[in-house]
Every structure is written in C-alpha cells, then in structure tokens.
Amino acid sequence: MKVFPQCGVPAVGLCFFVSLLLSLTMPSLAAEDKKLTEASPIATSTANGEVDEAGWPVADSPIDLTNTEADEMAQSIVKIYTTAEKNSTLAPWNSDSESMIGTGFVIKGNRILTNAHVVESNTFIELQRDGKPDRYEAEVLAISHEADLALLKVKDERFFKKGKFLEIGELPRVHQEISVYGFPTGGDTLSVTKGIVSRIEYLEYAHSGLASQAIQIDAAINPGNSGGPALAGNKVVGVAMQVAANGEENIGYMIPPSIINHFLKDLEDGRYDGFPEFAVVTEQLVNPALRSKHNLSKEQTGVLITKICAGTTPEQYLKVGDIITKIDNEPVENNGTVLFQPSKYIDFNYRVDQHQLNDTLHLDIIRDGKPLTVQLPLDRAVTSVYSHDTKPRYFIYGGYVFTPTQLSDSCQHRKDYDKNEFKNKTENVSIVKVLASSSNVGYHDLAMRVHMINGQTFNDFRE
Questions:
Q1: CATH numeric code, 2-269
Q2: What is the 3-state secondary structure (H, E, C) of the chain?
Q3: Which of 50, 221, 251, 423 would be 244's cystine partner, CB 3.0–4.6 Å?
Q4: Does domain 280-377 have CATH number 2.60.120.330?
Q5: pTM of the entire predicted model
Q6: pLDDT digits (tens, 9 = 90+) for 193-219
C-alpha cells in the first residue's frame, strides 16, 4: 500500500446512520459459558469444465442455488448495529453517540468479517441474522484501518448454532458475474444485488487514504452494504466497501481476496502487523526522450526512482536514478504496471502489498547502465492517512484551542531532510478555535498552524 493521489473517481464509505434510539430497542442476549463446534463451510459448486477466450475456467453462476443453499448462505450473513463515539474537531472536549448499520459474514474460526469503518470508534456492537429477532453482542477482535477490514468475536456462542461459514475464493475476472449481499437502506431484510466485475485497479481506499488493489463492480450497493460479501460460485470474491462520490451510477468498489487473505494471514500469530511500506517515489518511463537519456533499449522497461524517503531502509539499498525493471521477477512496464491476470495490468505496488511485514522484496534494477539485483527488507508498516479509534487531544490556553495535526509530507529527499530544522517533528500543532474573551479580542476568528512557541520549536504536541 502507498499514499496515492485520488485515482479516477473519488469514493466514500457506505455506513448507514440511524438514530441512537432505534439501536437500543432490541436487547442483546447475555453471554453463556458453552462450547459449540465451529461452523462448517457452505458447500461450493465446481466449475462446469468450460473455459473462456482467455483460457480461464467458467465458474458456475452465483445465483444457481438450491433453497437449502440459499437459506444457509443467508444465515451466514449478519446485520451489524454499531454505537460509536463521535468527536468534534472544533470542540474536542465534546463527544456524542451515533448509530451505524453495516453488514458482516461468518468466516472460519467462528469470526465475523466486516469493514473497519462499520465498527470504528465503537462503544457497543450487536449482530442480527436475517429474519431473526434476537441480537447478539460482539466485540472487535482485530482491525485494519489500512485495509478497511475488521474481525469480530461474538460473546454468546449460541449465535453459531445455525448457519455455516463462507470461504474466501480467488480474485474474480473482469466481466464475471457476482452477487452482493447486505442490509442496505430501504428495508430491514437481507438484500441481494447482481452485477459484473467492471475492472480491477489500484486506487485509493476512502477509509484510509491509501491506495491498493480494488474491484469495481456495477452491482447496486448502498449505505448499509458496507462489509457485505460479494459471491461467485458460493465463495467470497470481495467485500463491499465504498461507492463513487460524485453521483455516478452503478460504480461500487470491493476489497479483493488478496487483501482479505493478507489480513487474515497476518493475524495467524495473534497480532496485527499491517501492510509493508515501499518508501520510494517513481516516475514512468513512457517518454522516449527520458528513456534515451537513461540509455534504455526498446526491450528494457521499468520505472525511474526519483525520490527515496530519508531515514527509511530503502536508502541503504537503492539510489535516485535507479531503474526498477522487475519486482519479484515480474517485469515492470514503462507505465509502472505489472501483469496480474492474463492481459490485465495493475500498479507495480500491488506486488509490495502481497508481502507481509518483514518479508524481503526482490528487485531487479539498472544502475549506471549495469543490471543489479536487490533484496529489500520490508521492515516498516504503512499507516492510514487519517486518525482512527483515538480520542482527541487538545490544550486550552488563554482561550486558544490547540490540537495536533498530521504532517503534510513525511517523505523528504535526503538533502532536504538534512537541511530541515524541523526534521525530527512527528506532528504539527494547530489553533483550531478561539474561545472568545477579553484577553484575545481581535483574534476570535483565528485558525492557524503553530511553528514555534516563545521562540522554541517542538517535535510533537506533548512538547
């Protein structure tokens, strides 16, 4: 994953807000000390032996289900009621409660998978099966704001008496038919919408501000669908997460199986480490003059390194001016893409996202006209552009309200980093509001970033 400019259509999350009063009308069941066997998977259908023009097996239609299969599937998909704490940026001492509705589904290990933004800043979570009056209290087991995924644990194991878990499938093909399940606005029961995979690209996740692989679909998804599974051949091929923000019709986005599996594998040791960061900025080499400057033949392709973030591990292995020609033995095209499906290309950072933290990334590069290989340790995790699950910090002095804000650009060239007198700064501090009084007359509308206090610099809000 990387911090990436908005690619194409801006996107927004899908949480559906309802009143707090409605979320409290159904009490949850008390937890009970009772062990039950783990849920079993829904039976999966096999391919019919046919292949498409690209040589891919044609999967059975996801809508060809028997009544029993459909009932079991419905019992594996749950409605999530979240009560969350909401804080104000301009009045950080104030907090309020809001209620959200989303969707989740049962996976192996008696766990519920959903979106991180469905349960962010939660104070109380309840789950409900389709057509059932009972609600069950749940808690967050693990959360990845970077991938917009979360795992929930149900406190009362009686919840798993019915239904079976859903299995994670493979990355779908473009034009493949899928069915999206969830509890969107407009009704209380489980909804199913059908569509096809429109394209698979590397774009920004609205919740984290980070770019990663995402699946665009034309199936209708609405507020409340967040966290719901998209199924093909009875297997999960994506998790609904966001829609286009500018009113475009039939544009929705799903988290692909590669990101889901990365998240689940990461948690096998009981700890979430995150996705590795590739602290390098590159430029495409599609311009003939630029390629000629670097003495590249027509057969040589890749991307040019134009910036390496100071203070990061890549500084020890790479140099500005290096050309990355392969990543994990996959050729990098001049437009910065790699092959991920037959005839389908995606941003080469996709290969970085497939690694776990502390893995080694294999790079083939050209430096000063000579080919080299580099084994780059991926020892630092990327973090969300936004703050999540944190209570606001603030300080009031003389009516001025000070709060910390994130650095605008933490990646600097080495020469700029060495000259920067604020290079050790980890966060900015801003005045976000002025509480009017006689001592601050004339500054009541002030809002500004603070660089020094009484002539003294600082590295973080605590200082």
A1: 2.40.10.120
A2: CEECCCCCCCEEECCEEECHHHHCCCCEECCCCCCCCCCCECCCCCCCCCECCCCCECCCCCCCCCHHHHHHHHHCEEEEEEEEEEECCCCCCCEEEEEEEEEEEEECCCEEEECHHHHCCEEEEEEEECCCCCEEEEEEEEEECCCCEEEEEECCHHHHHCCCECCECCCCCCCCEEEEEECCCCCCCCEEEEEEEEEEEEEECCCCCEEEEEEEECCCCCCCCCCCEEEECCEEEEEEEEEECCCCCCCEEEECHHHHHHHHHHHHHCCCCCCECCCEEEEECCCHHHHHHCCCCCCCCCEEEEEECCCCHHHHCCCCCCEEEEECCEECCCCCEEEEECCEEEECHHHHHCCCCCCEEEEEEEECCEEEEEEEECCCECCCCCCCCCCCCCEEECCEEEEEECCCCCCCCHHHHHHCCCCCCCCEEEEEEECCCHHHCCCCCCCEEECCECCECCCCCCC
A3: 251
A4: no
A5: 0.82
A6: 999 999 999 999 999 999 999 999 999
